[in-house]
Amino acid sequence: MIGQSPIRIGIAHIVLILGIVVVAFPIYYTFVASTHSLQTILRPPLPLVPGDRFFENYWTALFGGVGRIGGVSVGTLLLNTTVMALGIAVGKIVISILSAYAIVFFRFPLRMMFFWLIFITLMLPVEVRILPTYKVMVDFGLIDTYAGLTLPLMASATATLLFRQFFLTIPGELVEAARVDGAGPWRFFKDILLPLSKTNIAALFVILFIYGWTQYLWPLLVTNRNDMGTIVIALKKMISFADADTEWHLVMVTSILAIVPPILVVLFMQRWFVKGLVETEK
Amino acid sequence: MATVDLRDVRKTYAGNVEAVKGVSIAIADKALCVLVGPSGCGKSTLLRMIAGLETITDGTVAIDGKVVNTTGPAERDIAMVFQNYALYPHMKVYDNMAYGLRNRGTPRDEIDRRVREAAEKLELGALLDRRPRELSGGQRQRVAMGRAIVRNPKVFLFDEPLSNLDAKLRGQMRVEIKNLQRSLGVTSVYVTHDQLEAMTLADTLVVMNAGRVEQAGNPLDIYEKPASTFVASFIGAPPMNLLSLSQNGDGPALPDGAKLAAAPKGAATLGFRPEDAEATVANGAAHEGLSLPATVEGVEPVGAESFLYCAAGGGRIVVRVAGRATANPGDRLEVKAKPEKLHWFDREGRRVSSI
């Protein structure tokens, strides 16, 4: 920065700190509430420091089961949501990297038509095609299954386009060198294309995992049983209109638990793809 | 180890664009054949057809006597060095060189032995654990060569391998490639647009233009007896001086009317090399051969020699002078050349043998 005077630095820091407080305080307060008993929460004011019910509340939520969602434990919900988010992220990446590979590196009849077909699906998000998709899932008997939760969300034009753009930047000479070196299509994909795509895959994984984790509308439709629900749906179901009915301490615990896995994914993958960026940088 | 035979090879792209229009070349075992020509002359297409990266529209390509038209690049037993090296960016130098062998299922210890041997030959021993981006241009070039050597192929193919290097390094690598090719004794095809590279490297030089072979043969023969005005102007730096002649009653003459005693019938262009001409102050002495009044327009001192750019005979010519040039722009000189140093070309640009 130009002209760093102590006053400027001070002001900058004050603004930053204010920003952090605005963003972080609600999360902190949620955490505080998750460590108090229901009685303490319902009797204002809520204390500003964590209480003594941390282990008890988290234990009850994770393994005991929550009454308002049919006694299903948050542990089950976390498992469901993880399976769904992972399924969507991995499925999308696998499908889109393969279709992009086919479109960029192979010459086959109607290649461009397939490309445009994929491209057009960009204009058809889940919300638009939700009724027919639901009908198909019912007919296949996929209601209340992991397949039903993940399959309709897997096909992804965005990821295909991203990989296509990346593949187009790979010099033709590299492909030819691999051909001369005796690498067939599969070897080329596995030994050269995949390692070079590491960074893109990591970045996409983060985005897609969070996309899957926060899905609301589709899981709401396709799951009826409480033990197949995702954490976001369950959180909604836990809250009743009547304040006294709601087990607020467990709601708070669930909220905290719901945001931990995406944070972990971001932290873990970030390190990974920064490494990737540094490595491929020329 | 192998010969390469091209017989009437053609390449037509979609839309009826003819890139290669019937090329026949026979490359002897262990020879280094250089394909040279301006960009778009089809030399790279030809090389890629030998490599199997490009389909052959017509004609045959034979390696070691076997027609390989429909054989894939990996089965032709060739190795190629690309212009941009085409190293695998995520692999270490060692793996870059070993990759082709691994795909062929060569035993591990055999791969290790060959890679280390090639690395030693190319002085890459200390770099085996580096990745391509940590190497300089020259080192990358060496790795690309190493990748070709370890395979121990029948034919090496070079696609303008030195054009991304700076001038000094290029000269150095040129010598190395030549020595390496000699010592390994592998038949090689080398594509370049640089006539200096072509002249110095080639056992057989093939000058291409617009999809056809203009002239093929020993580089010095081509230099001394260019078959066409195209070859004459492409080979040699600065290129051969070419002056167009007009036809009047008693034979070819220069545009300014000066008659040329030695001109053969049908000559439409006169050529002579800058180093075969002599520029002196006009003294009126009778001279056998060419004698042209010239006006100096520019002087380029290079050090060991100087080039005089002159207007003469209705065109522009260059004359090489050893050492420092004493002439200045505006000076009037007489440019002379011996009769045996004159080249004559007909209206189509074909060489006309002097009388």
Radius of gyration of chain A: 24 Å
User: What best-fitting shape of chain A do the alpha-carbon axes yield?
Assistant: globular
Helix fraction bin of chain A: over 70%
The SS-based structural class of chain B is alpha+beta
Trace the largest sheet of chain B across and list its strands: 6-7-8-3-9-10
Output the CATH class name of the largest domain in chain B.
Answer: Alpha Beta
Number of helices of chain B: 8
Tally of separate helices of chain A: 13
Describe this structure in words.
- The complex is a heterodimer of chains A (282) and B (355).
- With 282 residues, chain A is mostly helical.
- Chain A has one domain: MetI-like fold (Orthogonal Bundle), CATH 1.10.3720.10.
- Helices cover 72% and strands 0% of the residues of chain A.
- The longest helix of chain A is centred in the C-terminal third of the chain and has 33 residues.
- The longest helix of chain B has 18 residues.
- Chain B is of the alpha+beta class and 355 residues long.
- Chain B folds into 2 domains: 227 residues, P-loop containing nucleotide triphosphate hydrolases (Rossmann fold); 115 residues, Beta Barrel (OB fold (Dihydrolipoamide Acetyltransferase, E2P)).
- The chains are: A mainly alpha (282), B alpha+beta (355).
For this entry, give a set of tags.
heterodimer; A: 282 residues; mainly alpha; MetI-like fold; 0% strand; globular; B: 355 residues; alpha+beta; Rossmann fold; OB fold (Dihydrolipoamide Acetyltransferase, E2P); 2 domains; 6-stranded mixed sheet; 5-stranded antiparallel sheet; 8 helices; 21 strands; 24% helix; 33% strand; elongated; membrane (chain A); MetI-like (chain A)
